[in-house]
Specification:
The chain is α+β, with helices and mostly antiparallel strands. The protein has two domains: 64 residues, no CATH class; 90 residues, TATA-Binding Protein. Helices cover 56% and strands 20% of the residues. The chain has six helices and five strands, in the order H-H-H-E-H-E-E-H-E-E-H. A five-stranded antiparallel sheet has the order 1-5-4-3-2. Strand 4 and strand 5 form a beta hairpin. Helix 1 packs antiparallel against helix 3 and helix 4 crosses helix 6. The relative contact order is 0.13.
Length: 161
């Protein structure tokens, strides 16, 4: 069910962006007496319009499959490296919102930031063996892991002054 909801959200975002582009295009031809709806109808009823809508649907259908990921950071401990984990999350605008079983749940701060993630801004962190697993939307997880790797690699220099 979650997959379908994510797919529908992405499809709606693509449609809103498309309508924004059509609206901008209709502003350019408004001088000639052509309205927004006329431009939209002309584009949607053409063969290219049908292909475009099909492409939107296909993209929205596969987005949840590739837009989310789980990655493991080795040599990281939820307790020992808690400050580093929180700093990496804060660096990209995430804050702790609670616990869900063995997962610590982080969410983006602020309405605009959450909207930019289509309210799919939940990042889950848990301990797995000698590392931690981070799961969530791909662009957030990739950035957080990159930053966390930097913090973890710098920990060997702490206290050696």
């Amino acid at each position: 069910m979650r997959y379908v909801v994510r797919s529908l959200k992405y499809f709606l975002l693509i449609c809103v962006l498309y309508l924004g582009i059509v609206w901008y295009e209709s502003l350019n031809v408004a001088v000639e007496g052509v309205s927004f709806l006329d431009v939209l109808k002309a584009q949607l009823y053409s063969q290219h319009g049908a292909m475009l809508i099909s492409a939107f649907m296909l993209l929205a259908a596969i987005y949840p499959r590739f837009g989310f990921m789980k990655r493991t950071v080795d040599n990281c401990d939820m307790v020992e490296d808690a400050v580093r984990i929180h700093n990496a999350m804060q660096c990209f605008g995430f804050e702790v919102v609670g616990q869900r079983g063995e997962y610590t749940v982080f969410r983006a701060k602020g309405f605009i930031r959450r909207l930019s993630f289509l309210f799919e801004d939940e990042v889950l962190v848990r301990q797995v063996g000698s590392g931690i697993e981070i799961a969530g939307i791909r662009r957030a997880v990739a950035r957080i892991i990159y930053q966390l790797h930097a913090y973890i690699s710098q920990k060997r220099f702490e206290g050696n002054e």
